[in-house]
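Supplementary Text 2. Reproducibility record for the structural model of the 291-residue chain.

All settings were left at their defaults, and a single model was retained for analysis rather than an ensemble. We include the record here because the model underlies the residue-level annotations in Supplementary Table 4.
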Amino acid sequence: MKHSSVPTPHSNAGPELTSDLQPLMNRLQNASEPFALATVVRTISVTAAKAGAKAVIAADGSIAGGWIGGGCARSAVIKAARAALEDGEARLVSIQPEDLLAELGVESGEEREGVQFAKNMCPSKGTMDIFVEPVLPRPILVICGASPVALALSKQAPTIGFDVTICAPAEDHAAFPGAGRLIDGFGLDAIGNADTYILVSTQGRGDLAALEGALNVPARHIGFVGSRRKISTLKEKLREKGLSEQDLERIEGPAGLDLGAITPEEIALSILAELLVIRRTGQRQTNIQYI
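Retained model, structure tokens:
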């Protein structure tokens, strides 16, 4: 009798297993550390781990907690976890003995209909289907300044999945009720591990200091709210302070897509539209789990 090869995902994780991993997952989430959660969703024949077994895989590929079986599954799952953390896509891995792969006409490492196949070299010759999902820190939007555009951004950004950090003089912090994090001034040395986007909207109150602070962060995008002439003038001042052309090229502006925006709220919307384009570039799906 031929074993079925089409995975039928389901989870029978026992409460004791979930409670064992939850504190670890909470710690990683609180530290904004990315990780992958691997769950055995189906087994056929003899396998060490059964449906419902889970493991937390850290960004470096190590198994931080839990258990999904021995070496038969470990290498394929770790490879899938690393790839999932790289591109943000979940994966379903089917580990099968070589004869069953041959019957299906697939080779180890091949993907078919969303299932990645791997060879089980263990004597048990069992089949395991494992769902690997990335759990990524929410992207951070660092807003420098307390301008009307900055205020509008702080309200709109969380609605599309950004955690907000405000960098502004302490006397301006009261203008940002409910902001996730407030930094006095423009010192951006320790923002976190998540993808970081920086938007400078200082309107003449600390422009250079904010841009210098932004350039100290390995941000995915640095945008400046202002005219091209102003940006050119500021870049020249930064150049005189010794910043390299490579650094200056990281500053992009005027920030936002050309939507004909006029009001601060409209300008903020155009900026978020631009960030969304940048954020989603290269992603083939959007149902990613974020911390």
